[in-house]
Amino acid sequence: MDLNKTPAKVQSERACLCVLCGLPASGKSTLAQAVKTLTGQQHWRSSVISYDNLIPDYAFHSKTVEGFEDTVQRQTKWRLYRQAILQCVEHILQNPQALELPPTTCYINSFAWRQCVYAVRATEGSNTHQTPLILLLDDNFYYRSMRYEVYQLARKYSIGFCQVYLHCPAESCIDRNQRRPQALPNEVIVAMAQRMEPPNPEKNPWEQSSISLDTKDGFTDKALQKLKELISIALDNPLSPVQDNTEQKVADRLICANSVVHKSDQACRHRVSQAMQKARENKMSPDHMRSLAAELNNSKTTFLQNLRKKVLQDLPITPRETIDGESVAKRALDDFDQDTKEIMARFLLN
Questions:
Q1: Dihedral sign (CA 221, 225, 227, 231)
Q2: pLDDT digits over 307-339, tens only?
Q3: Using CB atoms within 10 A of its CB, is residue 329 exposed (0-12), middle (13-18) or buried (19+)?
C-alpha cells in the first residue's frame, strides 16, 4: 500500500484513527470496548479494529529447530498481515458501507472484518458526513514505526489521529495473561517490554496527540473522559497531507533503521547457525545445545534492539541522504561476533 499516493476518493467526513498501544494484557481490548460504548453515547460511529481477531491463529505459529525458534517466516508473515489490515482500514475510510474485503496479500478473517464494518455503517436515512467516524486500532504497536504507518494513513486522508499508550508493568501483564484461556509465554511479554517504544511527543512532533494511561489497577471514568477529549480534539484538528522536512526525516530514520536491522538480523542468524554447527561437530550434549541456542538468541535480540536505537538516535539522516545499510550493519556486527565467540568458548570449555 502506497501511503503517499493521493487517495482515489477524497475523505470529506469527520474521522479519527485512534491507536491503542501497550503490552499484551495491559487492558487495550477492555479499554477499546469501553471507548466504543462511550462514543456510542455521543452518537459517533465507532469500530474496534482488533489485530488479534483479524489475523488467523496460524500466522503466529513457527517451526522449532534445535531447541530454538526460527522466527524468520513468522516475522515476514506478521509484517504482511499488518499491511493487509492497514489496507482494510483504508477500505473503510474510502467506503464505510462496503462489506467486502479489499484485495490483500494475506487472508484476513472475513467474519471479524464484517463485524468491524457493521459497526460503522450508517443507518438508513442518516447523514454519514455529520456523524464522526472513530476507528480504534487495538494492537501492541510496540515499535514507533508501526504507529507511524497509521499516522501516514490518517494524513493521506486528512483525518484525525491520536495515540493512547497503556502503561502497565510487565509483571502485572504476565499475571493477567496467565489467567487467560490461551496465555502467551511469559518470555514473549518480557521481550516485548524490552522493545516497547512509548509515544514521545517532545521528541517526535507527529506524536503530539498522545496520552499515557496507567492501567496497572484498571482505568477510571476520568481516564475515559480524558481519552474522549483526546479523540474530540483529533476530530477537530485533521492532519494536513503536506509533509514537512521534520516528518520526512523521521520517516527516513525509520526506513533506515528497519533496513539496517533486517540486514543485521540475517547476518546474526547465519552466525548463530554456524555456532550451532560447530557445537554439533564438537558433540555437545542436547541439554547444552539448547542452553547455547537460548543464550545466542538472547544475545542476538539484545544486539538488534541496541542497534535499532543507535540508528534512530545517532544517524544524521536528511531527506536527500542515503544510507548504506549493509556497511552500517557490517561494522556493527563486530560486537556481536565478539559476544558469540565468548559464549561459544565458555560452552566448549564445559
A1: positive
A2: 877 776 655 544 444 455 566 667 777 778 888
A3: buried
